[in-house]
Amino acid sequence: MSVRIDGRTILLEGRCSVEDAETLLLALQEQPDASVSVEKVQKIHMAVLQILLALKPEIMGADASLFLSQNIFRSLIWNSDTGAKSF
Amino acid sequence: MDELLEQFLIEGRELVAQGGNDLAALAHDPQDAAAIDSAFRAFHTLKGSVALFAMQPAERLLHAAEDILERARKGANPLDGDAVTALLACLDQTDRWIDDMERQGALPGDAQGVSERIAALLTATPCEDTPAAPTPDDPADWIATLMVREASAIAQANAPLTAFRYTPDPACFFRGEDPLSVVEAVPDMVALAILPVDGAWPASKAIEAFSCFSILEGLSAASLDVVRAAFRLQPDQVQFAPIAPVEAVRQASESHGESRMLRVDSARLDAMADGLGDLIVAINSLTPLADTAQQQDRALALTIRSVQASIERAAGKLHRDLSAVRMVPLAPALRRLPRIARETADSLGKAVTLTITGETLEVDKQIADGLFEPLLHLLRNAIDHGLETPDQRRAVGKDRDGSISLSFQRSGDTVIATLSDDGAGIDPHRVRQTAIARGLITQEAAAALSDAAALRLILLPGFSTAATLTEVSGRGVGMDAVQAAVARLRGTVEIESIIGKGTRFSLHLPANALTTRLLVVEVGPERYGVSLDQVLETVRVDRAALMPVGGGLACVLRDRTIPLLDLAALLHLRGVEGPYAKLLITQSSGERVALRVDGFGERIDTVVRPATGVLASARGVIGSALLGDGSVLLVLDLPELAS
Amino acid sequence: MTRLLIVDDSALMRRLLTEIFALAGDFEVEVARNGAEALEKLSSFAPDVITLDIHMPQMDGLACLDRIMLVRPCPVVMVSALTAEGAEETLEAMALGAVDFIAKPKGAVSLEIDTISAALVDKVRAASKARISRATRLRERVRAAAGGELANPARPPRKAISPRALPPLTALSGDGLVLVGCSTGGPPALDALLGELPGDFPWPIVVAQHMPASFTGPLARRLDRMCALTVQEVDRTTPLLPGHAYIGKGDADLILSRRQSALVAMPAPSSPDHFWHPSVDRLVESALRLIAPNLLVGVLMTGMGHDGAAAMSRIKQEGGLTIAEAESTAVVWGMPGALVNRGGATSVCPLDEIPNHLMALLGQ
């Protein structure tokens, strides 16, 4: 399981696969103001990413994957309060 | 040059011209609603275009102008004459800045100050700066929306991009697909955006965790085929759009394309034209084949000829169609001229009215593109040297404002551009003196010239020197540049002038430039091509009809004596003596000249490739053409040979 | 050697299937071109198992199947198209007594022949050892045939169930869940189980039946028509209600989760960690994360393999109840057998006794 809850922080770690989407959704439904750490993410499935896009939690940390950091998270962090995400 | 910038230069000027036309209409009637609308669109689009470049002062100025037009459009604040004048100043300045962008890729240092000064002329207060972001209500608009969103990425790209919009099947996760992995495999990604499928992200409670509710839009620097390959497993879920940087500006600035026109890089048309040229060459190779076959099998030869005829018809149709595609109106090429005329006249303390007629005429793109330079020289020259100062004009009873007219008309396959002024005219006597003084011609030769021929001396290299060239008219080049530019287009220049009344320059240019109809002529053992554009007629006369005149020969054609030159002698070849003289009649320096050849060959349509290398410096050679049998035909420039 | 009769009107399909089974080595293959020929060979060839095409001229597959089950009951595997229409017909065939179905080979057969043939041979081999289902209302149809008409199985008359005096192992109370897993022979078994339960059954019933995606919708609709319970396919996040049975969508997994405080079932992409889908093990594991084990009843019925045995054993270990279908009624006693062998079954029941047993457990 690559979704771990540590207090008010939800940690995504390693390869976040499709089934993590439901786990992350549940975690964010239970703690809507939790922040999500992506520091140890190596790969993230679209299903997990779109949960982050839709619920816009506070994102912490730069991830380990170049593609993700360049295309996804950098702007996710910058734009986490806007509606449509432009990367 | 950066292709995006290149396209901006074209479109920016188009928009300036469109706005200029609208403002001209508004100068007559400031309440003309259609003109206000059109001007508003032009300013609005122009503002969007300049925003893509480092042109902030222009953007701010255009924004202020757009605001005035917006108020006028809503009837809140009608335009008056001053407003129209201010808008025109705004447009002229934008046009100058576009020139700056072309020359040095940046606005000059004073741009900010200039922008503020002109903005002050615009009395209306600028409205709140809210950039209009098109909303993606229509799915077909995704490209336009993407271009707006990714404008900076597109602006930074210096090669075509491929845009994609990937709407994964909501159930795709169940098939083990990960759209993010798919997109990650797209090479050379430039931009990526993940958008909610319904325009807004679902609320927490409504989220279906294993349903894909995202759309992935991206830009890749890879080709369409390469990007398409990355989506080979989802072909029905992806839309693609090739984004030439060219289109980028256009789309970004016009979120709703108003025209159904397809913009094609003219290089592609040129490539098609080259291909067509090769095809025509290949078709021509059937002629010798038929000739060879004739000796063995007449029926076969007949069949080959009939096949050749039908291929030729098809190729001919293709040629006409392609020519038609390449036909563009002259107007865009002329758009800068009115502003340049105003500026030039201003700087010289003169006033001028430029009227342009016939600019809707369509000509081959190459001609339209090539015409600007010579016309610009002629125009500057006419204002600088042709028109008198207002005082001088009043003294001779002319209107204070000089009048220059530029007209275009079509005559057969020729386009004639005529620039006339109502200035002082050119004095052939002074031209002769200047030419002699510059050592271009001997006193005797000058004296032997007719007045019409003498006027042509101004076209000679070296006739205009720094002393006669003001900074305005020539920018360091003289009338010989006009002659050279027109010759490159395989055209000719004619000059008429009446002292005290004005001068008229006529440029005769081929309207179609794709292939050239050539007449093959025989001179001794050699064969040459001559452009039928340059041949007025071909005649065969009894040798007895040739008359020695002075040191040369002449012949009488329809009661007119015309000089006759021997092409063999001009080419340093030995001609063949026969009972008849075969003559090509051409026009050189406004005079008819007969050129004697040994025989006329076939007429062919072919592509004449411009002379390069050693040929380029050979006098009287336009270029070369490849023949069907693989041999190369030199194509002669008759007027140059005859002059 | 297993004697296999291939019934198909397509010479190509006959040839393809013959080759596949000949290569397997342990089949003796005979072919029939239509229903009439199949019925002839029923006595002359005496097959151990039959593969039957549904669409044939003259006598179609369903009519042929019906006659086979009357004349000489024998395990029949339907050769079916994986379409919604194919699903209806196949489910009908299974109600008539067919043991299982295989997907009609199609597309790039030559490229995928190894994959296709392995699955095919496994299924037919298992079917050849299957018990002919006793839950097909054969007696009623024999009676109907004697009366001159070959009737389709009609909706069974709803009767008030009188719970047999089976002592409850544990007194269950509160809001719980019944989790059902089945595979080969599952559709008729579900018919027999769900069809006997009342419309106000107090706990939601969640079913993982191994099946292709196109089959579970028709299966749910068919069961809904036949049962007092409301039966629906879980094709999206669905809150669980009493009186309802939920069939997991095929070619996907079925998991339980929460939305606010409500319990929901939802389809989830097939997990690579599980071999069969919808995975019974995964369903049960997700339930164990959310619900106290003593509020779970696991029912594992007929099917090849061992899916569900591990997770249902956990239910028992952690204080819940599990029912394994008895070997005497299971078409294939794989899954329930695995549960029994692990010691994970709190009780073992013949199929027709499972409804009563459930009712008794819930004190109904």
Structure description:
In chain A, strand 1 (3-6) and strand 2 form a beta hairpin. The longest helix of chain A is centred in the last third of the chain and has 13 residues, at 66-78. Chain A is built from three helices and five strands. Chain A has helices at 20-30, 46-55, 66-78, and strands at 3-6, 9-16, 35-44, 58-60, 85-86. The model of chain B is unreliable at 124-139, 246-260 and 471-476 (pLDDT under 50). Chain C folds into two domains: 2-128, 3-Layer(aba) Sandwich (Rossmann fold), CATH 3.40.50.2300; 177-361, Rossmann fold. Helix content of chain C is 37%, strand content 21%. Chain C has helices spanning 11-24, 35-44, 61-71, 84-95, 109-128, 138-146, 186-194, 213-226, 280-290, 309-317, 335-341, 354-361; strands at 2-7, 27-32, 49-53, 76-80, 100-103, 177-182, 205-209, 230-234, 238-239, 244-248, 253-259, 262-268, 296-300, 321-325, 347-349. In chain C, helix 4 packs across helix 8. Chain C is elongated. Strand 5 (85-86) of chain A pairs antiparallel with strand 2 (189-196) of chain B.
What layout of secondary structure does this protein have?
The complex is a heterotrimer of chains A (87), B (643) and C (364).
Chain A lengths: L2 E4 L2 E8 L3 H11 L4 E10 L1 H10 L2 E3 L5 H13 L6 E2 L1
Parallel strand pairs in A: 2-3, 3-4
Antiparallel strand pairs in A: 1-2
Chain B lengths: L2 H26 L4 H18 L5 H18 L7 H24 L6 H11 L20 H8 L1 H6 L4 E6 L12 H6 L4 E8 L17 E7 L3 H7 L7 E6 L1 H9 L12 H19 L1 H11 L1 H29 E3 L1 H4 L2 H11 L4 E6 L4 E3 H22 L3 H6 L6 E10 L2 E8 L6 H10 L5 H6 L2 H5 L15 H4 L4 H10 L3 E7 L3 E9 L5 E8 L2 E6 L5 E6 L4 E3 L2 E6 L2 E7 H4 L9 E9 L2 E7 L1 E8 L2 E2 L2 H5 L3 E6 L5 E5 L1 H5 L1
Parallel strand pairs in B: 6-8, 13-23, 17-19
Antiparallel strand pairs in B: 1-3, 1-4, 2-3, 5-7, 8-9, 9-11, 10-11, 12-13, 12-20, 14-18, 15-16, 16-17, 18-19, 21-22, 22-23
Helix pairs in contact in B: 1-2, 1-4, 1-10, 2-3, 2-10, 3-4, 3-5, 4-5, 6-10, 11-13, 12-13, 15-16, 16-22
Chain C lengths: L1 E6 L3 H14 L2 E6 L2 H10 L4 E5 L7 H11 L4 E5 L3 H12 L4 E4 L5 H20 L9 H9 L30 E6 L3 H9 L10 E5 L3 H14 L3 E5 L3 E2 L4 E5 L4 E7 L2 E7 L11 H11 L5 E5 L8 H9 L3 E5 L9 H7 L5 E3 L4 H8 L3
Parallel strand pairs in C: 1-2, 1-3, 3-4, 4-5, 6-7, 6-13, 7-10, 8-10, 13-14, 14-15
Antiparallel strand pairs in C: 9-12, 11-12
